[in-house]
Amino acid sequence: MPSLPPKHRLARISPVTQRKQVDARRGSARDRGYSARWDRASLAFKAQHPLCIGCEARGKTVPTDVVDHIVPHRGDQDLFWDIGNWQPCCRICHDRVKARLEVMWSRGEIGASALRLTSKRAMAIGREVFGDLARMQGKEGGEPKL
Questions:
Q1: Among positive and negative, which fits the CA dihedral 28, 29, 30, 31?
Q2: How far apart are the first and last CA of the chain?
Q3: Residue range 12-17: average pLDDT?
Q4: For the chain, which terminus, N or C, has the lower number of CB atoms within 10 Å?
Q5: Is the pLDDT assigned to residue 146 strictly greater than 60?
Q6: Which position has the higher pLDDT, 79 or 26?
Q7: What CA–CA distance (Å, rounded) separates 110 from 100?
Q8: β-sheet bridge partners, residue 87
Q9: 3-state secondary structure of 89
């Protein structure tokens, strides 16, 4: 009985390997400027801004976990230390909502003002993200507890 010809498939890199490669390229947090000085400044900022600005805009009270640079500084120390370029956010808003916004911004799909977690675009993404999380937790129609 004849056999099928071999299938040719593109080589794929595992997600774990991809993450390791990205992390190696971007360097450590300290390499990117997140020094002890930053640790002190971000702690002070979080003390002054204890709630996530994205969650607050949706009527939720969630503590700040991260001080986010609204416009990515990409090594620009003036932008890095510009307190007007900082916003307080929870881990989910930072890692999911802001990450999506930054991808869109880097592609030129949105302007810098849409990078604020209170922007219309961020609010729409936040509703989608938090709705997905609520559905995964079996809380149809509501937001998950953080």
A1: positive
A2: 60
A3: 78
A4: N
A5: no
A6: 79
A7: 11
A8: 68
A9: strand
What residues does each domain of the chain span?
Answer: 35-136
What pLDDT score does 26 carry? 65
Q: How far is CA 100 from CA 40, 68, 116, in A?
A: 28, 14, 12
- 125, pLDDT greater than 80: yes
How far is residue 118's CA from residue 129's CA, in Å, rounded to a whole number?
A: 15
One-letter amino acid identity for 79? L
Q: Which two tokens stand for residue 93?
A: 């808003």
Average pLDDT in the chain: 87
Q: What is the distance between the alpha carbons of residues 54 and 146, in angstroms, rounded to a whole number?
A: 13
- The token pair at 29 is 């947090």
Tokens of 38: 């930053």
Residue 144 has pLDDT above 90, yes or no: no
The residue with greater pLDDT, 52 or 139, is 52
DSSP for 38-88? HHHHHHHHHHH--B-HHHHHTT---B--EEEESS--TT-HHHHH-GGGEEE
